[in-house]
Amino acid sequence: MSYTSQTISDLEKEHQEALKAAQDKMLTDLNDAQTSGNYEKIEEASIVFQNIATELANEYTKRIEEINAMNHKVVADNAPGIYTDKRTNIDLNLLVYDGDRDYVLEFQKDELIQNTLEKVNENNGKFKSRKHLLKSSLRLTKTLAPMLHEIGEHCKNTLKLKADIEFFVYQNDMFNASCYPPDENKLYIILSSGILERFSKEELTFVVGHEIGHVLFEHFDYPVRQILDEGETCLAPIHAMKLYAWNRNAEISADRAGLLCCQNFEAVGRTFFKLSSGVTTDSLDFQLNAYIEQFVDLEEVLNDANHDPSDWYSSHPFSPLRIKALELFNKSETYAAFNKSITGEITEEAMELEIKRIMSLMEPENLEDNSEHSEKIQRLMFLGGYLISKADGVVDEAEIQALSSIVSPKVFANCMMTIKGLTEQEMINEVQQLTQDLDIVLSVMQKLNILRDLSIISYADGHIDDREVHVLYNLAILLRIHTDFIDRVINDAQEVN
Q1: Spatial separation of the C-alpha atoms in residues 262 and 204, rounded to whole Å
Q2: 203 burial class (0-12, 13-18, 19+ CB within 10 angstroms)?
Q3: Quick one: DSSP state of residue 332?
């Protein structure tokens, strides 16, 4: 089929309707095939559905490109891309990290996130940044903090801001900085006393530029914690994972704005060094290259079976990943377009691809579909998912659809046939045997990926039951993963602290 919608929102509805029709037909065919015990028809129904879903996805992507092309043609002379000149005259569409932008585009099309965001805005109203800051911290005038205002003026000119900057400080020895939601003609940067006293002018310039970057890219549009709070009954764990992943990617965009202001990569390295170590004296001999090399060590550790799996759900990238991503930007043709004093060594495409690889280190790896153990892995996932779905007493259509999406048609058909003749205890026994067989074969990241996907399945019917969580715990124990990981996934989805 071909999509005909003229807008992204209409296209999303058209796509969802077509996908639902295909899913409904698959479920009807599956029921008929199971009733008759026809294995071939079960496999055929699954294959047909996956082929239709793939075709719809291709047509969907194609139509998005066509709509975007039409929109770009209309606005090309004014504001190409999704970022406008509302706050600045620099090209934000060139400066932004692709991973940041791509998530924003996805969120704009996600009806659940948009509906939740609308409720957040309705329930919370407009946050009065200046009123709050005047009550809770000290406003730093030009007389009180001349150097800071000099930094602010430099960043304003470099980033071609259309608003003024107002600085505030609060008492805290921790190294913290943030930017509050801006007003039309003013933005607010708040610094801890610790960072203000112990960071050099160049280092503070990077910090201030970074905070301004969050405003330029409108990162306040998606307040992650508030969205997850408001959407705890309707958003699935996958939404939490995507929101946190976007949060990490947004830091990469903001770092680029910070470097534009600072224009000294070594000073940026010192900034991250201080933030990571807390050491601001000369007791340690800072070497930028040695600090960057920590990325190599971290990359090895992230593939180690003993690292903390909860780190994969952090809201910020690890510092060595950030400095490595910024090193690539510092050498890129993209940066050269903003800083005429340098010559770009790598193309924008090469830079973005490598940064994407780096950022993927904070996501569990995908299972290798073509591995020799793939069928066992998929059988384990199906049985684990089925036991989770069955825990609350009802296996509904949404859960069957979710199961069909994570395994191959052949495995799905086989599982649908064989579970009819298995008791729950026999399924548990098989899961125990499969986890034992795969224990040495699976990496920690593959095990985390299995548990992450099964957690998503547990939410397919709209809620997570305590009995389903208990099954997830047991699966984690069998895979030798601490049950804290399950808590982290579920808590991130529902924002339970």
Answers
A1: 9
A2: buried
A3: B
